Amino acid sequence: MIKNNQVRAHAALLLAMLIWGSTFMAMKVVVTEISPMVVVFLRMIIGSVVFLGMWKWIRTRVEYRQGDWKYLCAMALFEPCLYFVFEGLALQYTSAGQAGMVTAMMPLMVAVGAFIFLQEKMSKRQLSGFLLAMAGVVWMTLGSVKNEHASNPWLGNFLEFLAMVAAVGYTLMMKRLTERYPAIFLTAMQSFVGAVFFLPLAAASEWPETITTEQWGILFYLGVVVTLWGYGLFNYSLTYVKATVAVAYINLLPAISLMYAMVFLGERLNIEQWMAIAVIFLGVYLSRGGAESEPDDKDNDGEVKTEINPAVG
User: Fold this and answer.
1) How far apart are CA 206 and CA 105, in angstroms?
2) Assign residue 144 a region: left if phi > 0, alpha if psi is -120 to 50, beta otherwise?
3) Where, by residue number, does the polypeptide cross the bilayer (predicted)?
């Protein structure tokens, strides 16, 4: 049974990456015509309506424990709130392909976050890989030229980097919460909190006179498929695999998002940017491997157990 759960968890992660990889392309299409805060608000509303229809089933499996409100609030603050603020703004200034490439930093940033907040040791190889990947992102940005897909790539890529910082905090909180809460409940909470958080931001933004059928289709895709299935699958996987294993799949996002952007949006990168991307992947590759520390305790199945420090956040 444990092995079957592991297989399902890895399959869920792969499918989640295929769904998430399309997010940059879908968001890029709508935020060029509609204010990012309006887009995210409508996305959260659509997702919330879907989850309300499922609420009778969702709530029966929830057992709140004293003090969990801190982690639930932190999770929602990191994502969707801060994450979508930064990403929505980022895609106004950079291309979907470049934004996707910045996500290659996330697994390395999780290691750095664990080093800073969890006092986990970080090897020289991991640190070197992180710095090299960071240099690659900077190089890719500097090698960008302004065009219809990226009006200000430096600002856009920096905002996407801040979105990744929020994603790291979200992942750490999710790993702790999935020990006690169903993934579907946590995903629903993200939509509910996001709808409330983005309401005033959307109200203060400029709304379009009309929203086309195509734009509504993309919004429903983001609100139902990406929110319900993307986050649901990722959160489900965290019930059975370590956070470090789950975020390792984020390495697939750059290639997937770049493929979508090139096929459906016609985005192209210059030779210098392709060289920078190679540096990013080299940095990610060098960061593989554990830190120079004592082995973690193992459970009865021989799998290394990683606990998230309850003091985080």
Assistant:
1) 33
2) beta
3) 12-31, 37-57, 69-86, 98-118, 125-142, 154-172, 184-204, 216-234, 246-265, 271-288
- pLDDT reported for residue 66: 85
Average pLDDT of every residue of the chain: 80
| b/e per residue 83-104 (b: at least 16 CB within 10 A) | bbbbbbbbbbbbbbbbbbbbbb
Q: What pLDDT score was predicted for residue 192?
A: 93
Give the pLDDT confidence of 231-285 residue by residue, as tens digits: 788 878 877 877 667 777 777 777 777 778 888 888 777 788 788 778 877 876 7
Q: Are 161 and 105 in contact (CB under 8 A)?
A: yes
Domain extent listing, the chain = 2-286
- Please tell me the pTM assigned to this model: 0.72
pLDDT digits (tens, 9 = 90+) for 180-218: 888 788 888 889 999 999 999 999 999 999 999 999 999
Residue 181 — φ and ψ, nearest 5°? Answer: -115, 140
Question: With helix as H, strand as E and coil as C, how does 207-255 read?
Answer: CCCCCCHHHHHHHHHHHHHHHHHHHHHHHHHCCCCCHHHHHHHHHHHHH
The Cα-based distances of 301 to 2, 4, 278, 305, 307 in angstroms read: 9, 14, 38, 10, 16
Instruction: Give residues with Cβ within 8 angstroms of 307, minimum separation 6.
Output: none
User: Would you state the pLDDT for residue 41?
Assistant: 96
